[in-house]
Amino acid sequence: MKRPDRFGPQSDPAFPALKARIIARTGHHYYADKDDLLLDRLRKRFKANGLPDCAAYAALLNDRALGEAEWAALEAEITIGETFFFRYAEQFAALRGTILPGLIAARAHERSLKIWSAGCSTGAEPYSLAILLNELLGPALPDWRIAITGTDISTAALATARAGLYGRWALRTLPPEERLRYFTSGPVLPGPGREGTYTLRTDYRRMVRFERRNLMELVDGTAPPHLADFDLILCRNVLIYFEAEIVLGIVRGLGRRLLPDGWLLIGHAEPNPAFAQTLEPVNLPGTVAYRPRGAGEPVMVQPPVPSAPWEPTLPWIGEGASATDLRSVADPLPVCPTGGTLEVGADADGAGRDARPRNDTAPPETLDDDLTWIRTLSDAGETGQAWRKVRAALRAAPMAAVLHYYDGLLARTLGRDAEAEAALRRALYLDPGFVMAHYQLGLLLIAMTRPAEGCRFLDNAIRLGETLPAVAHLAEADGIGPRELAQSAALARSTLEDLAE
After folding, report:
1. 421 contacts 397 by C-beta, under 8 angstroms
2. Residue-by-residue DSSP string for 382-442
3. I need a labelling partner for 260 at 20 to 30 A (CA). Which of 171, 206, 347, 425 fits?
4. Helices 54-62 and 35-49, interaxial angle, to 10°?
5. What share of the chain is helix, strand, coil (3-state, %, to 5)?
6. Nearest-angstrom CA–CA distance, 86 and 89
7. Nearest Cα to 262, choosing from 227, 283, 233?
8. What distance in Å separates the CA atoms of residue 17 and residue 165, rounded to the nearest whole number?
9. How far apart are CA 147 and CA 453, in angstroms?
10. Main-chain dihedrals φ then ψ at residue 236, nearest 5 degrees
11. Where are the beta strands (DSSP E) in 126-257?
12. Which of 172-186, 195-209, 300-314 shows the lowest mean pLDDT across its residues?
């Protein structure tokens, strides 16, 4: 909901100069047209320092003794830390099936790999790579020198990364058996969420080291010499912060730090035809990667058999379901009460449009900002606060199916299963084609020992996933395609049938 004007950026005459200074230092052009969002984040720093306005805060940033520490805190505050393990299934499938096996084969003599996760946030990305390499190399891992470096501008995010301590939300794509394999359970966090913690096992944590770095160093020439000669660089969902000219400079800098046969992965929405000036795009199933020019075609190598099977998995809710009274009955898909039609296409920025009716009534900018906050709070383990943010957003946009979906996910995380069920049903009432809502409601009902009902919603997810084009973008599916979703729903259903026999 829009604040009254007296609380907006225009009420503080020092805001424009402070905003310009922040963008110039950090390169975060992302905030050029997001004054309200930037001021929201600034106010947190005002409160932390007991300051009234932008002028006083600018003076603190100028302070010789305190300014640099406050800049670090501000940079952490304005960086969106949306991250979770094995984010973007297609890219991790490419890493497992093509990129890493090829690198392992090419480096078989020296047995050395050097990887950089640039903009690693709280560490889920580099740790996911550590897990994957552990699985791929298996017993041969001790014979290899694996150097994985995670860098980020946020000192707070790096502190979390070094601790290897995560809440349930950051592990949302991992089924229970994989969580047990990679993590140990920890204490319940204090506060409204009462969320349990998970600590990454030492075998994976010791494969990664972390540094505080700003990607602007690649543009101004201050990047340290040791950030070079990488076999693989991941810089995903970081370039969105920067204006076009800076993005090109960063990508050129990353390319110069790759070995001649190295690989670069960026976010799904970040490719730019101009990158081809210095790098060669390589089309892989479900994603695009980049290599230095002249690297040649990638060698397709059969990956080693891992010590335990691994494949990208889907977001999950609940575990320990009973398989009693299982029956194979599928409900027909409900009719959309709002008359919405299922659309799959391309947005203005070239990204695939969500496969669901366009019936969100809030202005897109307001809804997008709300969703950004909700995801950020959830990833930070602030489950209770994220849920309250969802509830506040729903007052402004009660017909937004995606908000009801997050209402359901967060309510489930808080142990409020009945409320979670009601919220997911509301999401489907508003948007019968919301595939992930069918999937998550099915898993929730199974976890609530109502497997017959749960299987009906899994069947809906399977039917939709098999009907939609393979390239369709599924809303809130973390990059998973319709076919992968249908396969995962079918696997969950068949597992229950096996247990019932």
Report:
1. no
2. -HHHHHHHHHHHHHH-TT-HHHHHHHHHHHHHTT-HHHHHHHHHHHHHH-TT-HHHHHHHH
3. 206
4. 70
5. 50, 15, 35
6. 7
7. 233
8. 38
9. 48
10. -105, 130
11. 145-152, 165-167, 183-188, 196-200, 208-212, 230-235
12. 300-314
The answer to whether the CB of 54 falls within 8 A of the CB of 15 is yes
Determine the Cα–Cα distance for residues 23 and 37; give it in Å rounded to an integer. Answer: 14
The pLDDT of residue 376: 72
Q: Which of 87, 152, 356, 456 is catalytic?
A: 152
C-alpha of 82 from chain center: 5
Which residue shows structure tokens 């805001």?
Answer: 15
Catalytic residue check, 152: yes
Q: Which two tokens stand for residue 415?
A: 């142990």
Q: Residues 189, 163: contact at Cβ < 8 Å?
A: no
DSSP state of 472: P
> HEC states along 235-268?
ECCCHHHCCHHHHHHHHHHHHHCEEEEEEEEECC
Q: State the catalytic residue, choosing from 41, 87, 291, 426.
A: 41
User: For 411-420, how does the pLDDT look when each residue is reduced to its tens digit (9 = 90+)?
Assistant: 887 777 888 8
Question: How many Cα atoms occupy the beta-carbon half-sphere of 83 within 13 Å?
Answer: 26
pLDDT at residue 346 greater than cutoff 70: no
**Residue 376 is encoded by which pair of tokens?**
């950020």
Q: Which two tokens stand for residue 52?
A: 């009234």
The amino acid at residue 60 is: L
Asked about 41 being catalytic, the answer comes back as yes
Report the alpha-carbon distance of residue 76 to residue 97 in Å, rounded: 34
Q: Does this model's pTM top 0.70?
A: no
Q: State how far the Cα of 394 lies from the Cα of 399, in Å rounded to an integer.
A: 8
How large is the average pLDDT for residues 309-330? Answer: 31
Q: Which two tokens stand for residue 182?
A: 């990679």
